[in-house]
């Protein structure tokens, strides 16, 4: 099974703002970026044979709609929920709160939010359901942390290393699951 992990295109949020599960708008360059990402995907994937799922975030739905009219919404593909930190500038979050989380973001929840392990568990529970179906091609339009969590699983990486991978806006990563084994074809293409 070929699994294409696509990150939404760039957002219209000022740099340095903590956003995860917040439903933020895309940037003014979205139409061009969406078209570019779609064309790159079509070079690797026969979308007429693919099963496509999207995060419920409008920034993902807009890209999914450009790829195909035949996609499903999947709640477990949401970006990490930063809880009380959503839409705050990272610089304004008190270090007494952010430092412990930064030291162990895998296991520590943000206030009224989730940990990276929570995100990993929900995203990979969905991936387990996909694997059972044994589809030929799957496209998941979602977010950087969600993509990182799935790639960590495929590569059997320690979750604390997830953010050492660059996952750019509009990027495509491809992993393959075959006979119980994972391989990574490309990341951040």
Report on the structure:
It is a single chain. This protein is α/β, with parallel strands linked by helices and 189 residues long. 33% of the residues lie in helices and 20% in strands. The protein contains 5 helices and 8 strands; from the N terminus they run E-E-H-E-H-E-E-H-H-E-H-E-E. It has helices spanning 30-42, 58-67, 95-103, 116-133, 144-155; strands spanning 2-7, 17-18, 50-54, 71-73, 88-89, 137-142, 172-178, 181-186. A hairpin with a 2-residue loop joins strand 7 (172-178) and strand 8. The longest helix is centred in the middle third of the chain and has 18 residues, at 116-133. The radius of gyration is 16 Å and the shape is globular. The chain starts with a strand and ends with a strand.
Structural descriptors:
about 190 residues; two-stranded antiparallel sheet; 5 helices; about 20% strand
Could you report the average pLDDT, rounded to the nearest whole number?
Answer: 97
Number of strands: 8
Rounded to the nearest angstrom, the distance between the terminal CA atoms is 19 Å
Shape: globular
Q: Major sheet: order of its strands?
A: 4-3-6-1-7-8
Relative strand content? 15-25%
Radius of gyration, Cα only, in angstroms? Answer: 16 Å
The poorly predicted ranges are none
**Could you state the oligomeric state of the chains shown?**
single chain
Number of helical segments with 4 or more residues: 5
Portion of residues within helices? 25-40%
The ordered H/E elements are EEHEHEEHHEHEE
Walk me through the topology.
Blueprint: E1 2-7, E2 17-18, H1 30-42, E3 50-54, H2 58-67, E4 71-73, E5 88-89, H3 95-103, H4 116-133, E6 137-142, H5 144-155, E7 172-178, E8 181-186
Helix pairs in contact: 1-2, 4-5
């Amino acid at each position: 099974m070929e699994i294409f992990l696509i990150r939404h295109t760039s957002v219209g949020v000022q740099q340095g703002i903590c956003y995860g599960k917040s439903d933020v708008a895309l940037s003014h360059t979205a139409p061009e970026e969406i078209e570019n990402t779609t064309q790159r995907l079509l070079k690797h994937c026969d979308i007429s044979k693919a099963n496509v799922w999207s995060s419920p975030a409008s920034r993902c739905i807009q890209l999914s709609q450009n790829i195909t009219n035949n996609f499903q919404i999947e709640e477990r593909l949401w970006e990490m929920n930063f809880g009380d930190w959503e839409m705050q500038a990272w610089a304004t979050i008190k270090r007494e709160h952010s430092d412990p989380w930064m030291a162990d973001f895998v296991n520590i929840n943000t206030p009224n939010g989730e940990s990276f392990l929570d995100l990993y568990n929900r995203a990979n529970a969905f991936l387990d359901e996909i694997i059972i179906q044994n589809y030929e091609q799957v496209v998941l339009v979602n977010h950087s942390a969600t993509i990182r969590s799935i790639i960590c699983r495929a590569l059997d990486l320690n979750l604390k290393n997830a953010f050492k991978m660059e996952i750019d806006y509009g990027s495509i990563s491809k992993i393959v699951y075959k006979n119980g084994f994972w391989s990574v074809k490309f990341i951040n293409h």
